[in-house]
Amino acid sequence: MQKEYAVQMKNISKHFGGVKALTNVSLNVEKGEIHALIGENGAGKSTLMKILAGAYQKDHGEIIIDGKEAKISSPKDVINLGVSVIYQEFMLAPDLTVAENIFIDKLAGSGILINWKTLKKRAKEQLLKLGFDDIDPEAKVGSLSVAYQQIVEICKCLARDSKILVFDEPTAVLTFSETRKLLSIIQNLKASGVSIIYISHRLEELLEISDHITVLKDGNYVDTVATSSINKEELVAMMVGREITQLFPERKAEIGKEILKVENLHAGEVVKDVSFSVKSGEVVGFSGLVGSGRTETMRAIFGADKKDSGKVIYFGEEVNFKDPKEAINKGFGLLPEDRKKQGLLLEQSIRMNTTMASMFKIKKLGVINHKKEKDYVKELLASIATKYGSMEDNANSLSGGNQQKIALAKWLSADCKVLVFDEPTRGVDVGAKTEIYKIINQLAEEGVGVIVISSEMAEIIGMCDRAIVMRQGSITGEVDKSELTENNLIKLAMGV
Predict the structure, then answer these.
(1) CATH superfamily of 258-494
(2) Are the C-beta atoms of 13 and 24 separated by less than 8 Å?
(3) What is the rounded distance in angstroms from the CA atom of residue 48 to the CA atom of residue 25?
(4) 5-240 and 258-494: same fold?
């Protein structure tokens, strides 16, 4: 029986200047299947999907949709062909409401006037399908959490009745329970005949829900395999060209004296009576659902947000950082959750982004030693296997994973004594994750106190000496290493 394909991309090539992003890459997606697309950061996955979406034009190759060659010159052409792409970077208007964003393509329906009551009702129905009817259709999208913005993005694409959906890291910002909801929805879409291309670095998800997996490496096609015929270790070897024997490397850090103590911290409407401590050489995990107050707690300590009351005792002295600059000067750093808005200056060079928190290392009498700076940046970025063209290129020229490495490098260069990592491996491939874990271990072994906020429970369990769980702005419990299990974390996060 001949296979029926929803999408065929044949021998696609794409160059950006002298950089080969894709070379003769092919992808064949059967009708009504979930087809996973994987590879390390910079492998070409997002570029291939942007060509399918009409955001980029291919240099060579052929695209066939539903058996017919597709002439794609713009994103509108693709939408008309029944294809929708949900990017890592949301395509939302923050000042418009949830309902307006979901139906942005057809606000007035078939008429010329907008029926706001009907629009709100239809938006509520779309949100209910995903199990997120607690999102207010009249709320401004810019006021929503990152996770809820992702849900609105998905609703917007589903509202187009697309028969081919591309999900680019859809669960990267979702918690465990939210991820389970989304995976269930995706399987229901498959059952209804929708064809799905699914990009994710979470291999467990791919092995659970996909029918086939296509692997790319360095802009080249590696292979397509039936999911039932391969395991996680074999997939990793295909992706990175080598076996990764240990995802969470061993750490040989000596846990020392208490260096940070937070007592009865209150901040805004989210952080309520939070108390905890961190010792030198210790990696402390912060777990909980999105909106539980983990990020807000760290921002209040860091001086990015105002704290209302409570004490922060840092190396035995009470401190009250009035802004992040003061915290940085004291050796307290924070790698933020949203690298694009808070972690990087995207329109500035890779070099500048890397050294902005450590100018003291490359300046003398107020003058920057540019040779010293370039040598330092080259050595630092090589140590964390960052892929880039020139260090004078803007940060927005990099793939998402390499942008995260630049954001990380900035703090590695700052010689912090306490460093908070907020979702440090979000959108990062499995090989790069291991590199980041090694860096966290190295920092702990050097006596740095490390705080890791993560929505991936496997990461909390595999990396942390103990975990603090938050729910609705308060700490619901603390779990020692010996008792770190998904079951215990979920119970505390859900208030069970």
Answers:
(1) P-loop containing nucleotide triphosphate hydrolases (3.40.50.300)
(2) yes
(3) 8
(4) yes
Q: Which amino acid is at 477?
A: G
Residue 165 CB burial class (10 angstroms; 0-12, 13-18, ≥19): buried
Q: Which residues fall within 8 angstroms of residue 339, CB to CB, at 6 or more apart?
A: 403, 404, 407
The first and second tokens of residue 311, run together, are 């004490």
Instruction: Please return the burial class of 340, using the count of CB atoms within 10 Å of its CB with bins 0-12, 13-18 and 19+.
Output: middle
Task: Report strand pairing: 164-168 vs 195-199.
Answer: parallel
pTM exceeds 0.85, yes or no: no
**What's the full length of the chain, in residues?**
496
* C-alpha–C-alpha distance, residues 42 and 431, integer Å: 12
Q: Would you write out the chain's pLDDT as a tens digit for each of its 496 residues?
A: 678 899 999 999 998 876 788 999 999 999 999 999 998 767 888 899 999 999 899 999 999 999 999 989 888 899 889 999 887 677 899 999 999 999 987 775 656 778 889 889 999 998 988 788 889 999 999 998 877 888 898 888 888 878 899 998 888 767 777 788 888 889 988 998 899 999 987 888 899 999 999 999 888 999 999 999 998 888 878 887 655 556 788 899 999 999 999 999 999 989 999 999 999 999 999 998 777 899 999 999 999 999 999 999 999 999 999 999 999 889 999 988 777 777 788 888 888 888 877 777 777 777 777 788 888 888 888 877 788 888 888 888 887 778 888 888 888 777 889 999 998 887 777 777 888 898 899 999 999 999 999 988 889 999 999 999 998 899 999 999 999 988 888 888 877 6
CA 460 from centroid of its chain's CA atoms: 16
Strands 60-65 and 5-16: antiparallel
Q: How far apart are CA 98 and CA 137, in angstroms?
A: 5
DSSP characters for 303-351? TSS---EEEEEETTEEE--SSHHHHHHTTEEEE-S-IIIII--TTSBHH
Enumerate the domain spans of the chain: 5-240, 258-494
CATH 3.40.50.300 fits 5-240, yes or no: yes
Q: 400-412 vs 430-445: helix axis angle to the nearest 10?
A: 10
In the β-sheet with 283-288, what is the strand arrangement from edge to edge? 332-335, 418-422, 449-453, 283-288, 466-471, 474-480
Report how far residue 61's alpha carbon sits from residue 379's, in angstroms, rounded to the nearest whole number. 38
The structure tokens listed for 318 are 């009470």
